[in-house]
Amino acid sequence: MASENDYLDGPVPLEARRSSFTMALLWITMVTVFPGVLIGFEWFKQGYSLRQVIISTVFSGLLLLAYSIPAGLLGAHTGLSYTMLSRLVFGSGGAKLVALNLVLIFIAFYGLAALFLAEGLAGLISLKLPMMWLSAICAVLMAANNFFGFKGVANFARFVAAPLLILWVGYTFFKTLGSCPVSIWQVGEKCSLAASLTGISGFVIGFAVWGNECDYWRFGKSKISTCAWPLIISLLIGQFIFPITGYMVAYSTGITEYGAATAFMNDYSFGGFTALAVLVLTVSYFAVNDSNLFGSVQACIQLKKLSLRVWVAILAGLGTVTAAVLSISGAARSLEAIVSLNCVILPTATVVMLCEWWLSRRTGKGVFAVNRDAHMKSASTKVYHPAALTALICGIAVGVLTSGALPLFGFSLKFGIPSLQAWLAAAFVYLPLRFLELRAYTLSQSGVELSDQDLVRIES
């Protein structure tokens, strides 16, 4: 997917922008993947009712759209990469922190996707190879498209594998819908709706959000509809139909283990035609990790000017080690931990960028209120932007502490919707601090005497 000419140092020209149909196919392959089905089995195992699943997935999807549509528009409107936008808003030094967060999360997802593929293959064809080795082999092979530039693999994933996966799960959905007992609506609820919303939203948002949406949508056209309808369709399929299908199959069969679930889905939908299931799963997971590696390489090349293949080799190596390590705890537990952090860490930085974009458009001041040439100069002259970094740290702290991902003193604090709490905290901190910075800058430009504190803030 990645190439040496990805417009890393400037905006994507209008003539290089892709059609909305192409962007839709890309995003569908990035969001509609098989773990979306498997999580439905996990939700049934955890005791959520179907009513709780439907309410929570719909609410989480709407919340995700409220974030992802503006994030996509930011990339399409500016044409700039996620790393370049980070430099503008956080400073060149702050952008390194943002890029490091992105790379760490993407490596974790890269290893997780390799582990999911390994478990799926083991369930379909009964491979006897230890899961640690099988997941590591999958991780190495998944880097081939980025390393060698096999465009045909990516196109096959978008035009063949993704539609087949959607048809597979869609067929299973309607087949199960017609045969699933009505008693599924009487499943007892083991927790409150608020608790189910906390758990389910963590997956829906944490799995479907990318954080660096700008890196992908800057190749699209700057229209709300161009961003909105692909996101709506992909979320409807990947985060609503997919998990509900898994939930209904789990209720009907009692299966809750991922490998057995994949094998049953093959027998139930394909009549045991294993080769087709293996092909669809393999190429769809390859497509997801193709996008994971693309986003990581984009960030790393901005931090250190190494060749594309060198970065692909380094990141694929780290992803391979991650896949082997995650195989020890298993895919289900690893997925829960990674998505709970992903929905907080990466999108919070983008929320700060969106706040700056909104301020610039509303006040006529700020980094997005000037032309793009001035953008580039601004990115190279400022090392740290205190308001942006303060907001980012506060937002991530609130989200992580309320997600239960990092227990403190043996006590796990988990409540509300951690991602939403993180985003709001970052916005509430950034907007007033940034208003003060812009006001101080305006006063300095008009010749008004400023205090030492104001001067320090302006210079920083």
TrEMBL record:
<protein>
    <submittedName>
        <fullName>Cytosine permease</fullName>
    </submittedName>
</protein>
<feature type="transmembrane region" description="Helical">
    <location>
        <begin position="387"/>
        <end position="409"/>
    </location>
</feature>
<dbReference type="GO" id="GO:0015209">
    <property type="term" value="F:cytosine transmembrane transporter activity"/>
</dbReference>
<feature type="transmembrane region" description="Helical">
    <location>
        <begin position="338"/>
        <end position="359"/>
    </location>
</feature>
<dbReference type="InterPro" id="IPR030191">
    <property type="entry name" value="CodB"/>
</dbReference>
<keyword id="KW-1133">Transmembrane helix</keyword>
<feature type="transmembrane region" description="Helical">
    <location>
        <begin position="231"/>
        <end position="250"/>
    </location>
</feature>
<dbReference type="InterPro" id="IPR001248">
    <property type="entry name" value="Pur-cyt_permease"/>
</dbReference>
<feature type="transmembrane region" description="Helical">
    <location>
        <begin position="193"/>
        <end position="210"/>
    </location>
</feature>
<feature type="transmembrane region" description="Helical">
    <location>
        <begin position="308"/>
        <end position="332"/>
    </location>
</feature>
<feature type="transmembrane region" description="Helical">
    <location>
        <begin position="155"/>
        <end position="173"/>
    </location>
</feature>
<feature type="transmembrane region" description="Helical">
    <location>
        <begin position="97"/>
        <end position="118"/>
    </location>
</feature>
<keyword id="KW-0812">Transmembrane</keyword>
<dbReference type="Pfam" id="PF02133">
    <property type="entry name" value="Transp_cyt_pur"/>
</dbReference>
<keyword id="KW-0472">Membrane</keyword>
<dbReference type="GO" id="GO:0005886">
    <property type="term" value="C:plasma membrane"/>
</dbReference>
<feature type="transmembrane region" description="Helical">
    <location>
        <begin position="415"/>
        <end position="433"/>
    </location>
</feature>
<feature type="transmembrane region" description="Helical">
    <location>
        <begin position="21"/>
        <end position="41"/>
    </location>
</feature>
<feature type="transmembrane region" description="Helical">
    <location>
        <begin position="130"/>
        <end position="148"/>
    </location>
</feature>
<comment type="similarity">
    <text>Belongs to the purine-cytosine permease (2.A.39) family.</text>
</comment>
<feature type="transmembrane region" description="Helical">
    <location>
        <begin position="53"/>
        <end position="76"/>
    </location>
</feature>
<feature type="transmembrane region" description="Helical">
    <location>
        <begin position="270"/>
        <end position="288"/>
    </location>
</feature>
